[in-house]
Design a protein that fits this description.
Elements: E1 2-7, E2 10-17, E3 25-31, H1 42-51, E4 55-59, H2 77-93, E5 97-107, H3 110-118, E6 124-130, H4 137-143, H5 147-167, E7 172-173, H6 190-193, E8 207-208, H7 211-217, E9 231-236, H8 242-251, E10 256-261, H9 267-270, H10 274-289
Helix pairs in contact: 2-3, 4-5, 5-7
């Protein structure tokens, strides 16, 4: 069902998937990759979790998809973590949900945001991360071509933010495209370009250049020692930055599991058997810990 809830005065729009079993049932907040809208992968995982007996909420973050808020399509870890907190507010208050049994599932970049929420919000009782993108300065240097390239992107972000603050104009580049276009991911990634997969009309394939500042300076691995909730990671050596996931897992303060499987990063978004393997692992984890 379509739902709306408030996040610091902005109306966020989500989809709440409820199981056929009578409630109240455990609730799970679900979110996906950076720049994504809920229809790209969060809905898929939320729907499948509902089949396992959970009330699962996917939603568009502030400035993305159907949700309100400006400027649009700005990747802000702090703002997304705040939105997740308000999604938890919504779930805990819902009549179909047992507000004392709330979990969080982050796919790819949302692993950082769900972890950031769990680190300071005890209402999140259990955490699951699928194909997690978990970075700090060292991982960013590895992923983006070295410290000098990271510094150049941050400088471009600062210039774009200065222009926005002076004029209100947002500088955008494609999320996925060519290096000549300045794309945030200068590769031909089928998931994002195929309309039958992630290249859907509600996703504009644009990245606000000023996002580089907060994205590249966010340290998700530093949050691990603050997370005492039971946590499971599902990942593959062929997916994105497994070394970051290992370091994050090593730093976790609470009970932790790591399920290694096979598949590329993008397989975990919508392909089989990766989605089923991930969903079954996550559902079992929540079953033990919520």
């Amino acid at each position: 069902m379509k739902v709306e809830f408030d996040s610091a005065g902005v109306e966020l729009v989500g989809n709440l998937f409820l199981p056929d079993t009578p409630g109240p049932v455990p609730g799970v907040v679900v979110a996906g990759t950076w720049t994504s809208v809920k229809e790209m992968m969060a809905d898929r995982y939320a729907r499948r979790l509902a089949e396992h007996g959970y009330a699962a909420l996917s939603f568009d973050f502030t400035g993305f998809g159907e949700s309100g808020g400006n400027p649009r399509d700005v990747e802000s870890p702090d703002r997304k973590i705040a939105d997740i907190g308000h999604a938890v507010d919504f779930l805990t208050a819902h009549a179909a949900v047992d507000g004392d049994r709330i979990g969080a599932l982050g796919i790819c970049a949302a692993a950082m945001y769900m972890s950031g929420t769990a680190a300071h919000d005890p209402r999140v009782r259990s955490l699951a991360l699928v194909a997690p993108w978990l970075h700090d300065a060292a991982v960013c240097a590895q992923a983006y071509g070295g410290a000098d390239e990271v510094a150049a992107k941050i400088a471009a972000g600062r210039a774009a933010r200065t222009r926005f603050e002076a004029s209100g104009a947002v500088e955008y580049v494609p999320v996925v495209g060519s290096a000549e276009d300045g794309a945030a991911m200068p590769y031909r990634i089928d998931f994002y370009l195929d309309p039958a997969r992630g290249g859907i009309p509600t996703w504009p394939n644009r990245f606000a250049v000023m996002s580089w500042i907060d994205w590249l300076t966010y340290d998700s691995i530093a949050t691990a020692p603050k997370i005492t909730q039971p946590t499971v990671l599902v990942h593959s050596e062929d997916a994105a930055i497994p070394e970051g996931a290992r370091r994050f897992h090593a730093g976790l303060a609470g009970p932790k599991d790591f399920f290694w499987t096979q598949g590329t990063q993008f397989d975990f978004y919508d392909q089989e058997p990766q989605v089923t393997v991930a969903v079954d692992t996550v559902a079992a984890h929540f079953g033990r810990t919520l």
